[in-house]
Amino acid sequence: MSQRSSQPRRGERHRVALVVGPGSNPFEMGIAMELFGMPRPELDVQWYDFVVCAADGAVPVRDQLFTLTCPGSLADVAAADTVIAPNRPDPECGFGAEVLNALRAAAARGARLVSFCTGTFTLAEAGLLDGHTVTTHWRWTDEFRRRYPGVHLRPDVLFVDDGRVLTAAGSAAAMDLSLHLIQADHGAAVANAVSRRLVFPTHRPGGQQQYIERPVPSRPGIALAEVMEWALAHLDQPLTVAALAGRAAMSPSTLHRRFQAEVGTTPLRWLHHERIDHARSLLETTGLDVSEVARLTGFGTASNLRQHFRRRIGVAPTAYRDAHQRGGTHLPG
Q: At what angle do helices 188-197 and 171-186 cross, to 10 degrees?
């Protein structure tokens, strides 16, 4: 696959093409339309150039709920920086050679490839996933492994970012992956602003478990929600699981079980994720030096922040600031 960046040339809008086909899921289509297609005039960024395209102009969506008239065609895929592959009602339903060839051509010129739910099967059918790490809906993991043994499948996560190929496990995880893409393109502050606009909780990290046997509440229980809110207001302090448990008036083991059941991760992993996200926001929106960012986010020292930030984000704090800050003074760190 070509290593040319999928980012548009300076002054151009990032073009996103959503490819749909017979049986595509309207919920996931709606997520892509809402997050990439709706204008965001309240944000001081150049938003996406979004188009819905298909091999045929009219597409019946899943279970014949309605027919979608697409303004774009597969010719639009050839000009897109990000291409969202079509999903299908089940893995047995494929798409024609025209769609697969359009995806192959997009990959060959270095476009970023995205799939939601069973869209992973479409990318695999096009021969674009061998050697990559991906995920798909837990219901179809055994079938995917049987059909595509050359692809590394992670069956228990929400989404996987494997560089040029990004895959989401299911319908709700498509929201998390879309916000992850917005964060990668525009920074944490913009992604959080979009989350607030959607009245959607801060997006979950991709490594979070996609399926929990015990039913998950739509929001954490009151005691857990309160301690999480308190922790977010005290990220500059050396918080421990024992301190969080004490605040929630429960034992550390009970707090751990509640976090796993209601949030899908451990208290420490959640806390670390929030500290990094807070650091990203401060680097994007303030001129604070890295030592002060480290203090305000609970990492203590600049070297500690650099270590954890690079491990999670892949770049140093100052490199991240240079790439994402709008206004303010870029300070060394």
A: 140
Give the three-state DSSP class for 205: coil
What are the distances in angstroms from CA 319 to CA 11, 139, 281, 293, 314?
Answer: 21, 40, 14, 14, 10
pTM of the model: 0.69
Low-confidence ranges of the chain (pLDDT < 50): 1-5, 207-219, 327-333
Q: What is the pLDDT of residues 93-140, one digit of tens each?
A: 778 899 999 999 999 999 999 999 999 999 999 999 999 999 999 889
Domains of the chain, CATH where assigned = 15-197 (3.40.50.880), 213-333 (1.10.10.60)
Phi/psi of residue 82, each to 5°? -130, 130
- Dihedral sign from CA coordinates of 295, 298, 303, 307: negative
By the 8 A CB rule, do 152 and 136 touch?
A: no
Q: Return the beta strands (E) in the chain as ranges.
A: 15-19, 49-54, 58-60, 67-69, 72-73, 82-84, 112-116, 133-134, 152-153, 159-161, 165-168
**Residue 127 CB: number of other CB atoms within 10 A?**
13
Fill in the amino acid letter for 103: L
**Dihedrals phi, psi of 114, to nearest 5 degrees:** -130, 145
- Residue written as tokens 């709008």? 326
Q: Which residues pair with 159 in a beta bridge?
A: 168
Residue 52 to residue 12: CA distance in whole angstroms: 19
Instruction: Give pLDDT, residue 328.
Output: 37
For residue range 45-74, list pLDDT tens digits in order.
999 999 999 888 788 887 777 888 888 899
Residue with tokens 């929990």: 212
Residues in the chain: 333
| In contact, 122 and 91? CB cutoff 8 Å | no
At residue 218, the pLDDT reads 42
By the 8 A CB rule, do 120 and 55 touch? no
- Burial of residue 205 (CB within 10 Å: 0-12, 13-18, 19+) is buried
- Token readout for 229 is 């809110």
